[in-house]
Amino acid sequence: MVPESSDKEVINRAVRKAWVRLIPFLLIALILYNFDKASFTFAIPDMETSLRLTPFIAGLAAGIFFFGYLTFSIPGTYLTQKRGVKLLLPVWIVGFGVFATLTGYVQNAVELLVIRYLVGFFEGPFAPSITYFISTWFPREQRALAMSLYLLGIPISGIIGSPIQGWLVEFYGWRFMFIALGVPTIILGLLAFFYLTERPNDAKWLSDDEKRALLNRLLEERKSIETVTGGYSISRAVRDWRTITLAIYYFFAALNFAGIFVWMPTILYLASKLGLYYIGWILGGVWFVVLVVMVVWGRHSDRTGERFNHVGVGVIISLIGALMTYLFPTNVLILAIGLSLIIIGTMMGISPFWALITQLFTGAASATVIALIDWVGNVGSFTGPTIFGYFEGLTGNFILVYLTTFVFYIIALALLYTVKYMAEKRR
Fold first, then answer.
1. What's the CA gap between 336 and 402, in Å, rounded?
2. Closest CA to 261 of 37, 1, 21
3. Rounded to whole angstroms, how far apart are CA atoms 287 and 33?
4. Which residues, including other chains, have CB under 8 Å from residue 45's CB and lie 6 or more apart?
5. pLDDT band at residue 118, thresholds of 50, 70 and 90?
6. Contact residues for 375 (Cβ-Cβ < 8 A; gap 6+)
7. Residue 423 pLDDT grade (very low, low, confident, very high; cuts 50, 70, 90)
8. Could you write out the DSSP letters of every residue in 121-158?
9. Could you tell me which of 72, 65, 67 has the C-alpha nearest to residue 39?
10. CA-CA-CA-CA torsion for 294, 299, 300, 303, nearest 10 degrees?
11. Looking only at Cα atoms, what is the longest distance across the chain?
């Protein structure tokens, strides 16, 4: 029998190889995925003029992307779990790359709404499929770090993308920006089919010992989860009180984050009168802070094995940021800091949150719950930009937006700790 310490060394070696082989590619895919979302936020001021959009329609165009996402995220993720990441993930990437590029050719509001819906449709299965994919490769004790390394694509896309997007819009126009940033996504999607490895036992870059040790560890994890959950079926996992409560939590968190993310460049543009090029550099700095915090916080969550408080601290930071924006809406410096804290606080809790979700269920039940919670979150992501745009059009300012954000973070925090309290009580 192989000693346990030796097995652990072999598992760690296999995981390191998986990090090197898989995470950089997934990270690049996430960077390009987020380029599209951020590109639209930079395009809003000029789009409103050239396409004659009202603030409500601009918000709807941002939100309808998430409605497309909702349409296909659960069935698409289920298909990916059944047919394989290697086969279907490239389809999703190429699909949203094509329609992101076509955004640069729209001539009116109707075309814009249709194209943005289709971008969201193909992006729907992307993120939950990768979350599930990571759970099939990385054991629980390394999973939050693996998620953190992959999710670094979000702040990196902000650090790199914000200055580039601001520069492209300022000097070449929003149409050229969508085309220039959409084409690389199509190329990456085509490469994904040849590059990705479905499961550890398919990996030619792992030794037989590494495959065996890693697969055994993942199988032990799955059995231990099924012992606790009784091997939940999909329908039972979806109806579980933890799934429902965490999905509602994620709705409010995603609503706030998406609403602020979409409107932040416009808020700073109107409040400061700086050009979008300079605002791009400001946002790049914010995303650099997010990058550092995500790595440190994700590693700390893995090291301690704690998830709930690592999510909760992030929500509290976002809550403080929302309060700052409401109390000081005309102070540009405090407003910028408050908006930044909303982004930073939400992002630092992302990888511990998804690591928590992957510890609740296994197999198809896990993939479906991930997709369901992601789906509900995207209802929030559709709602946030739309109602925030409506509030701005109704009042002529963003004060009601800041108040709404503050209240919704209080609700989200209460829901999160309700799950923690109830889970501890039932032990």
1. 12
2. 37
3. 16
4. 265, 266, 269, 276
5. very high
6. 69, 70, 73, 74
7. confident
8. HHHTTHHHHHHHHHHTTS-HHHHHHHHHHHHTHHHHHH
9. 65
10. 160
11. 72
Q: How far apart are CA 300 and CA 148, in angstroms?
A: 11
Q: State the CB neighbour count (10 A cutoff) for residue 239.
A: 11
Terminal Cα-to-Cα distance of the chain (whole angstroms): 34
Determine the angle formed by the axes of helices 332-348 and 276-304, rounding to 10 degrees: 40
Mean pLDDT of 44-48: 81
* Strand stretches in 104-236, DSSP E: none
Comparing 108 with 278, which gets the higher pLDDT? Answer: 108
Q: Cβ(266)–Cβ(44) under 8 Å?
A: yes
Phi then psi for residue 18, to 5 deg, are -65, -40
Residue in the block written with tokens 């601001």: 166
Which pLDDT score is estimated for 203? 85
